[in-house]
UniProtKB/TrEMBL annotation:
Pfam families: IspD (PF01128). The record marks R155, K211 as: Positions MEP for the nucleophilic attack. Catalyzes the formation of 4-diphosphocytidyl-2-C-methyl-D-erythritol from CTP and 2-C-methyl-D-erythritol 4-phosphate (MEP). This is 2-C-methyl-D-erythritol 4-phosphate cytidylyltransferase. The record marks R16, K23 as: Transition state stabilizer. GO terms for biological process: isopentenyl diphosphate biosynthetic process, methylerythritol 4-phosphate pathway. It catalyses: 2-C-methyl-D-erythritol 4-phosphate + CTP + H(+) = 4-CDP-2-C-methyl-D-erythritol + diphosphate. GO terms for molecular function: 2-C-methyl-D-erythritol 4-phosphate cytidylyltransferase activity. Keywords: Isoprene biosynthesis, Nucleotidyltransferase, Transferase. InterPro entries: IspD, IspD/TarI, IspD/TarI_cytidylyltransf_bact, ISPD_synthase_CS, Nucleotide-diphossugar_trans. Its EC number is 2.7.7.60. Belongs to the IspD/TarI cytidylyltransferase family. IspD subfamily. NCBIfam families: ispD (TIGR00453).
Length: 230
């Protein structure tokens, strides 16, 4: 298997969480959210190294967490950019030259299990780009600027996209550098490949693989981890 590197963008602030500073340092079952996120990759024999990208003011704290929790697969901690996309680009460029496949995973998505991660890697073999996604439960309607419905989208073909997302390293670098030179910003890394015409495969994810964005998400994450302990 090609050497796999992990890039974890962790520079986001907790505006919707109502927290001061980085939401990824909030406690989840007694440990920072970011530690839960990184640990699954630390445990994986498939992962060669991890790069964490953080805000300038958070770098020292991230270094302390990496040391305190013995996350020795973290090879580098680097400063992020203005937008998440900028941070991912910097993280990818910071990976060792030997890394051939890159997994990007949100720092605030701490409930990915080792089993689901390995299933994702196995299912992604043979694809230059693959992302996790889950079927949407609600009916999705498209509206115009005044709020009037213009279309009802076919729910069976819609997916709510998660991370991890995996890419051939050369392809990911190419699209990130092209987007940066053109001033193009996508909604996630996969959208950059779509913009340049590369195919992206969707692999079914898990309903439990939530992103902790609001206080309600943090409450739910606590409940999910408690359930897993029983």
């Amino acid at each position: 298997m090609a050497e796999i590197g992990i890039v974890i963008p962790a520079a986001g602030q907790g505006k919707r969480m109502g927290a001061e500073g980085n939401k990824q340092f909030l406690s989840l079952k007694g440990q920072p959210i970011l530690v839960h996120t990184v640990r699954v990759f630390q445990m994986s024999d498939c992962v060669s190294e991890i790069v964490i990208v953080g805000a300038e003011n958070d770098l020292a704290l991230i270094e302390d967490l990496v040391s305190r929790y013995n996350l020795d697969k973290v090879a580098r901690i680097c400063q992020g950019g203005v937008q998440r996309q900028d941070s991912v680009r910097l993280g990818v460029l910071a990976l060792s030259p030997t890394i051939q496949r890159v997994v990007v995973h949100d720092g605030a998505r701490p409930l990915l299990t080792l089993k689901d991660f390995h299933h994702f890697l196995q299912a992604a073999e043979g694809f230059s780009a693959a992302i996790m996604g889950i079927p949407v439960k609600d009916t999705i309607k498209q509206t115009n600027s005044s709020g009037s419905v213009t279309d009802t989208l076919p729910r069976e073909r819609l997916r709510a996209v998660q991370t991890p997302q995996i890419f051939d390293r050369q392809t990911l670098e190419t699209v990130h550098l092209r987007a940066a030179s053109n001033g193009y910003y996508g909604t996630d890394d996969a959208s950059l490949l779509e913009w340049m015409g590369y195919p992206v495969q969707v692999i079914e994810g898990s309903q439990e693989n939530i992103k902790v964005t609001t206080p309600e998400d943090l409450w739910l994450a606590e409940r999910i981890l408690t359930m897993r302990e029983t």
